[in-house]
Design brief:
533 residues, mainly alpha, 20 helices, membrane, cell outer membrane
């Protein structure tokens, strides 16, 4: 268990505090915002601003599900009585999510819960007599803009609310209007933020100048999706600010970005400082591991045996065209995931759990007495990339498990590992893509150099001699697997609506954004449902 600066910053004290999730609830709290009752001391101010970050502790649960399960990377099979959940996981995979499903509701609540808390604290800071209150305003406005960026990406057309005293139900704004608001808020406040880079200092986990630049880079990278107009130059400029700062470098060992004690990652631009006891919410271990994996890791609770990688994506790490490399020779995989010839990418070894599973002694096989009689592996638990079906009876041990973040003995329901929202390798790949799009040349020398730098350092595989959009997207997927950007990337490359494993081709692209949750529309008549839902 780690002791992080955000604990000193008093954020973790507020993680259990309830945030407003309906926009019309905020008026119930406004009468508390007076200069007599709010934020007289620096300690109270710091604690209050920490509360504005509490929503991001739902990031993995809300955004991972919406941005990964909907893609060619991740699947949640229905394993008999497990993970049926009214069919909403299958609907998520097949892009048939509806306005009553829980996953869009979770994303909406996270985003607007964060917006409402920022608005509440900004209102209180406006009447605070503390001389340091103004120093937090820019940070909170940029954090609010980030919450809106996530809402823009997921829902497109959403309300904009900045006045905590305004009790009128807000109306839906167009995606272009929301985009313009986010950009203007970030640009108006970014220069007031500290230019602090990697390190477990007082701003670890908080919005800094480089966090705001990374948000602008993401906003501009996807501008054509959001507004119909590309913004390659603006996106490149934001990437270059981060790259040229000299504050970030690639980690020589890819796995160190995702280890239990990863606070010193030189790639981390912005990370959520999770803690298994004091700051929970990152429970990938519970979501992906088999029930019997409790015995492997000596866990207090039994995992849920759900999330797995799609077989074709897992196999994309094996390139039969490459010469044998230092990690071994394999050329493909049989249906059980047994390697056969080619070069093995080191990131594959980190990102997945496959093969026979054992007790904590590493010798005694794990067994599953409830294994399906049709499962050819029988009771001995073997994680195989092959998944026999999406529903209703996927084998309980089927699917390569998501092992990207280090699992460790004695782990709690929530992991200690910090979760990077913005990572330096992502910025380098963004620049590579932007240069190619701007020039129309995917073999631009700088593009190739940037991609190959990551590929050789993190993957330990031979560099590319040429690129195409599909090769680049596949390589970006290998590096950024399970970091909650795949849906955004597939939309940008025009393949999100294609047919892939467990997902038939979409009849139209209205599914590229999610439905506004029905309870929100019922509570606010000024909201408009997204087209097609």
């Amino acid at each position: 268990m780690k002791h992080k600066s955000l604990t000193r910053y008093s954020l973790l004290v507020f993680l259990a505090a309830a945030s407003c999730t309906k926009l019309d609830e905020k008026a119930l709290l406004y009468d508390q915002v007076t200069e007599d009752s709010f934020y007289k001391t620096d300690k109270q101010l710091a604690a209050a601003v920490g509360a504005a970050y509490s929503s991001i502790y739902g990031y993995n649960g809300a955004f991972f599900n919406l941005n990964e399960v909907t893609t060619d990377e991740v699947v949640v099979p229905t394993r008999g009585a497990d993970w049926g959940d009214g069919g909403h996981w299958v609907r998520l995979k097949t892009h048939k999510t509806n306005s009553t499903d829980s996953q869009p509701a979770n994303g909406w609540s996270l985003g607007f819960g964060g917006v409402t808390t920022c608005n509440k604290i900004l209102a209180a800071l406006a009447v605070s007599k503390s001389p340091t209150a103004a120093t937090y305003v820019a940070e909170l406005k940029c954090l609010r803009a980030i919450y809106y960026y996530w809402l823009l990406d997921l829902f497109g057309n959403v309300p904009i609310t900045t006045d905590f005293s305004d009790t009128k139900p807000p109306a839906t704004k167009s995606r272009a209007e929301v985009y313009a608001f986010i950009e203007s808020e970030l640009l108006a406040n970014i220069e007031k933020l500290p230019k602090i880079g990697t390190g477990d200092g007082p701003y670890y986990g908080r919005v800094t100048y480089y966090v705001a630049e990374a948000t602008l880079a993401k906003l501009y990278l996807n501008a054509q999706t959001y507004t119909g107009t590309p913004q390659y130059d603006k996106a490149l400029a934001a990437c270059d600010v981060i790259i040229n700062s000299g504050k970030y470098t690639l980690m020589n060992n890819y796995a160190d970005n995702f280890s239990r004690n990863n606070t010193s990652s030189t790639e981390s631009i912005w990370a959520i400082p999770f803690d298994g006891v004091k700051a929970g919410g990152f429970n990938m271990n519970m979501e992906t591991l088999h029930l019997q994996s409790q015995n492997t890791y000596q866990m207090n609770n039994q995992p849920w045996n759900g999330f797995a990688s799609v077989q074709e994506f897992y196999q994309s790490y094996i390139d039969p065209a490459q010469n044998p490399g230092p990690q071994g020779t394999v050329v493909g995989l049989d249906p059980k995931g047994t390697p056969t010839t080619g070069t093995l990418d080191k990131r594959m070894l980190n990102n997945f759990l496959v093969g026979p599973q054992y007790q904590a002694d590493g010798v005694t096989p794990l067994t599953d007495g409830g294994a399906d009689v049709t499962d050819p592996n029988g009771p001995p638990i073997t994680f195989t990339p092959y998944i026999n079906e999406l529903q209703p009876n996927a084998w309980r041990q089927a699917g390569a498990r998501i092992g990207k973040w280090q699992f460790y003995k004695g782990m709690q329901t929530s992991l200690d590992n910090d979760l990077a929202i913005y990572r330096y390798a992502d910025i380098l790949l963004m620049k590579a893509e932007l240069l190619a799009r701007k020039s129309g040349n995917w073999n631009d020398p700088v593009t190739l150099a940037l991609v190959n730098q990551i590929r050789t350092v993190h993957g330990g595989v031979a560099p590319f001699t040429s690129l195409t959009p599909s090769i680049f997207l596949a390589e970006r997927g290998r590096e950024m697997f399970a970091e909650s950007y795949r849906r955004q990337d597939m939309i940008r490359f025009g393949v999100y609506n294609d047919a892939y494993r467990f997902h038939p081709a979409d009849p139209d692209a209205h599914v590229n954004i999610f439905p506004v949750p029905e309870p929100q529309i019922n509570a606010n008549p000024n909201l408009k449902q997204n087209p097609g839902y």
